[in-house]
Design brief:
The chain is an alpha/beta fold and 168 residues long. Strand 9 and strand 10 form a beta hairpin.
């Protein structure tokens, strides 16, 4: 049985390769036409990428076995974050998983720039970022099958958030 995954904010597709290598069909959503063109050059026509904002989901009626949202949701405001979590959850198959990475309050940029609302800052021109802790993760993801929060450090401290649709 073939598996499929949705990647909101797929960019030029670098997060798609690992799934494709494992025979998983990837669908993406991306706001940048330039990034989509780069992804099309690399992947050809066998990967659907919807041009638009994740705030306008859903773009199709499919249910996905998995949703992978890397370093995106923390760029949205509170109501947009709630909508994205809800929209992703609604597009999951029963027993499907969704994984989000979000920036942590442990990041050196936390508290920098102009305070917009609780834990949300304009860190540089036009880039607004919400910084998560375990409390805000639980508040936002608890209704979406949240079952695991892991701290990860790449170039920034992140949280890896895992949710599963099904009987919680």
């Amino acid at each position: 049985m073939s598996k499929n995954i949705l990647i909101p904010g797929i960019g030029y597709g670098r997060n798609a390769q690992v799934f494709r290598d494992h025979g998983i069909a990837v669908t993406g959503i991306e706001i940048s036409k330039t990034a989509i063109d780069m992804a099309k050059k690399h992947y050809g026509t066998d990967m659907t990428i919807y041009h638009g904002s994740v705030t306008d989901m859903p773009f199709d009626k499919y249910l996905y076995d998995g949703i992978f949202c890397y370093a995106l949701i923390h760029l949205l405001d509170g109501s947009e974050r709630q909508k994205l979590i809800r929209d992703c959850y609604h597009q999951l198959t029963e027993n499907g998983y969704m994984v989000f990475t979000v920036i942590s309050k442990a990041a050196p940029t936390y508290g920098q720039g102009k305070l917009l609302s609780k834990d949300r800052y304009e860190i540089f021109d036009g880039v607004n970022m919400f910084f998560y802790d375990r409390e805000s993760i639980n508040a936002e993801f608890s209704q979406a099958g949240l079952f695991e929060i892991t701290e990860v450090t790449e170039n920034y401290p992140f949280f890896l958030i895992k949710c599963r649709k099904g009987d919680q």
